[in-house]
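Hey, I'm writing a tutorial for new members on how sequence and structure tokens pair up, and I'd like a real worked example in the thread rather than a made-up one. If someone can provide the structure for the chain below, I'll link this post from the tutorial.
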Amino acid sequence: MYELFVLGQLMDHDMAGYQLRKALVTVVGQEQTVSYGVLYPLLDRLNQAGDIVLASGTGSRSKRAATLTVQGRAHFRQLVLQPVTINKQAQLAFQIKCNFLHLLDKAGQRTVLRDFQAFSQAQLTNLAAVRGYLTDHPRMVPLDVVDALDVNQLQQLRAQAQADWIAARLARLDKEVEQ
């Protein structure tokens, strides 16, 4: 997922490692970002794979600017269009992909958004099932049920806002095609 982020950021212009980390913090938040101890080895792996070229700068604090290669552009496209594996990082992966919708043609944007839409609908379905379970199992401590239902409501509101955002983006794409 961080590989996708790095390749996507480099689609527009060359960046140094510290710039990539700063951009990641902006997109995913401080609590979701990677350390330099993870980022720089990732840049080295991408360089060795031929997806980027690392150029060393000069001066007392040398910056290693990363430049995307043709192969790296193809790898980015493959990663961004690949369906997201549903795991604990899926939400973050979709957030990163949505940050790069502007780099995709309309069909690619639709592919990413429909995958995200399916994920969001599954979230809503699962949350409704949890709500039903909490409501129908009186053997739980009543105050635990109240708290769990409140948290479930918060989760449903977030998931619904996400689903609404995706639907609006898809509608905007459809409208742009019509014009």
